[in-house]
C-alpha cells in the first residue's frame, strides 16, 4: 500500500535546541506528513550546526522515502544516539527532503517555531 505523503513549506523561523545549544535555525523549514504519523520538520543541512552531530552506522529503509542515515547529537549534557536522520538519496516522490535533517523530539530536543 502506498503511503500518503504531503510536504509543505513552513512559515517563520524554526529552531532546534538541545542541551542549552541551538543546533539549527532556519527560515527554510519544511514539514513532511505521512499517513497517521506525527508531522516531521526537516531543516536544510546548511542551517544545522553540524559540529554537534556525530554520524553513526545506523541505516534504515522506508519504502516510501528510501534509506535514512543517522547522527547522534553530542552536547554538553548528553549524547543522544541516532536522534537525527537524513535521506541523502530520497525516492523521487520526496525529493524535497534531500540535503535536509530531521530531529527526534523529546525531553532533550525541541523543534519549534520562534
General description of the model:
- The chain is mainly β.
- It has a single domain, classed as Metal Binding Protein, Guanine Nucleotide Exchange Factor, Chain A (Beta Complex), CATH 2.170.150.
- It has no helices and ten strands.
- The chain has a seven-stranded antiparallel β-sheet with strand order 1-4-5-9-8-7-6, with no helix packed on it. Strands 3-2-10 form a three-stranded antiparallel β-sheet, with no helix packed on it.
- The N and C termini lie far apart (37 Å).
- The mean pLDDT is 95.
Q: In brief, what are we looking at here?
A:
The chain is built from no helices and 10 strands. With 114 residues, it is mostly beta strands.
What are the main properties of this structure?
single chain, 114 residues, mainly beta, DUF427, globular, 7-stranded antiparallel beta sheet, 3-stranded antiparallel beta sheet, DUF427_sf, Metal Binding Protein, Guanine Nucleotide Exchange Factor, Chain A
Amino acid at each position: 500500500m502506498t503511503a500518503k505523503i504531503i510536504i509543505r513549506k513552513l512559515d517563520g523561523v524554526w529552531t532546534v535546541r538541545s542541551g542549552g545549544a541551538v543546533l539549527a535555525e532556519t527560515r527554510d523549514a519544511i514539514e513532511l506528513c505521512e499517513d497517521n504519523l506525527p508531522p516531521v520538520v526537516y531543516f536544510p543541512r546548511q542551517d544545522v550546526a553540524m559540529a554537534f552531530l556525530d554520524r553513526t552506522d545506523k541505516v534504515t529503509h522506508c519504502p516510501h522515502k528510501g534509506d535514512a542515515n543517522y547522527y547522534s547529537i553530542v552536547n554538553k549534557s548528553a549524547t543522544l544516539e541516532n536522534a537525527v536522520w537524513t535521506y541523502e538519496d530520497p525516492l523521487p516522490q520526496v525529493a524535497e527532503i534531500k540535503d535536509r535533517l530531521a530531529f527526534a523530539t523529546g525531553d532533550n530536543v525541541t523543534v519549534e517555531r520562534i
